[in-house]
Automatic annotation (TrEMBL):
Cross-referenced NCBIfam families: NrdG (TIGR02491)
Gene name as annotated: nrdG
Free-text function comment from the UniProt entry: Activation of anaerobic ribonucleoside-triphosphate reductase under anaerobic conditions by generation of an organic free radical, using S-adenosylmethionine and reduced flavodoxin as cosubstrates to produce 5'-deoxy-adenosine.
Reaction(s) catalysed (UniProt annotation): glycyl-[protein] + reduced [flavodoxin] + S-adenosyl-L-methionine = glycin-2-yl radical-[protein] + semiquinone [flavodoxin] + 5'-deoxyadenosine + L-methionine + H(+)
Keyword hit for Ribonucleoprotein: no
EC number: 1.97.1.-
UniProt-listed InterPro entries: Aldolase_TIM, NrdG, Organic_radical-activating, Radical_activat_CS, rSAM, rSAM_sf
Family, as annotated: Belongs to the organic radical-activating enzymes family.
Pfam families in UniProt: Fer4_12 (PF13353)
Cofactor: [4Fe-4S] cluster
Protein name: Anaerobic ribonucleoside-triphosphate reductase-activating protein
Amino acid sequence: MNKVRIAGIIPESIVDGPGIRMTIFTQGCIHHCKGCHNPETHPLNGGRFVNIYDILDDIKSNPLLDGVTFSGGEPFLQSKELSLLGKEIKALGLDIITYTGYTFEEIVTGIDKHKYWKELLNITDILIDGKYKEDSRSLLLKFRGSKNQRIIDVKKSLKTNMLKIVEF
């Protein structure tokens, strides 16, 4: 299927990563973090389906974009659709940031069990990982909500064969 279930799209954002970004809020999350910023994205059957090629047309129509951010909800629940969209985004020369409640380690160890996680991870340039923890909240953090969350350079981290996670 070439459709992704989304909660919404922000055509231009400066708070979901560096530069001007389109932010796609996926629908559906199993983490249910206490104090979540986007609780309306939790229901798996909520939101609406959008053709990924319609999203791609919107991306192409904005020459100001530096990249695209996949947020949520939980993007890894729709890894097949987002990896397909992500490949097209990368072909345009844009970078991709993916927010996830999973840790980098959980994603890497789950690749064998979840068919498209590897593809989504491989098209992601920056991964912001970890569940939001209300008791670790900080308004001073860049691009994340709680101190446990990391901003990870995926390409550099994968090159270490998981011996070292390279953070920004």
